[in-house]
Amino acid sequence: MTHMSHQVTPKTRRSFIGHLRAAIARLSPTEQRVVEVLLADTNHIAQSSAMAIAQAANTSSATVVRTTQKLGYPGYNALRNDVIRFSMQEPLSATDTGGAPVDAAPDVMDHVFLTAVEELQTASDTLDRQQFADAVEVLDAAQKIVFIGSGESSMPAQEAALRFMMYGRDAVAPTDVLQQQFGARLLTSHDALVAVSYSGANKHTLEAVETARISRVPVIGITSTARSPLAELTDMLLVMASPTPVSEPLIGRIAHSLVLNGLNQAVLRNQQPQAFGPSDALADVFARTLTEQQDK
């Protein structure tokens, strides 16, 4: 199955690193070695020729050029020019490779929030916008949507289902693994399944996806890495990669919630103006629930 049909142009050094990491799964083993050499020391790229990268990856210069083309560049020199430009704009710090910060912020919370903003921007840069647009089209046309997520991915899936339900859509997010299996099996090609998995390797999530594929159900995968079993099973893959392994779990959870919210908002934009807001059928439910909460 083909993913990443729309190439993402990195905007910063950090998004460049996330871009490389997100692309690994769609490359051949030899091309993956080239990317691993590039990631090993991004500072060294500016001084390295294609031949030098090829020798380090135990391959040919032609493979290096082919790899950079699959990454969205005309050739290796264009990739190197981007790295040089990034170096002039923002020198790479130790935190970009998972080490301790060189100059720790005087205020811990300032440092935490500033880092989170940078990391989330990187996640956004690595998101394939064409895959996102395709996912919106599928969800907009779906008669029923099942969101699947286990462990820490369960809550984002449930929140997403609730958002879609609030606007009158038939959406569910079963938490029991058997319910996930049954729900996925009852879907048809006119429905959609959204699988959320940080690692892309959760056993229960993969089983639900495989079950849905029996009926040719369109599957949208949301994960933090394209190098995963989930990537091989989805029709649309929404990857939000982080440039540092240290930050991946936290940033991944936030990024997944944001992209799910983005899918919901994008689908709403395709609806008629009067369709915005909770459906009439649910309005009384919200009113009654709020009244009961206030009376407690």
Question: What would your notes on this structure say?
Answer:
Mean pLDDT is 81; it is low at 1-8 and 91-102. Strands 2-1-3-4-5 form a five-stranded parallel sheet, sandwiched between helices. 55% of the residues lie in helices and 7% in strands. It has 13 helices and five strands. The protein folds into two domains: 9-94, Arc Repressor Mutant, subunit A (Orthogonal Bundle), CATH 1.10.10; 129-280, Rossmann fold, CATH 3.40.50. It has 296 residues and is α/β, with parallel strands linked by helices. The protein has helices at 13-23, 29-40, 42-45, 50-56, 61-70, 76-89, 108-126, 129-141, 154-166, 177-185, 203-214, 248-269, 280-295, and strands at 145-149, 171-172, 192-196, 219-223, 236-239. It starts with 12 loop residues before the first helix and ends with a helix.
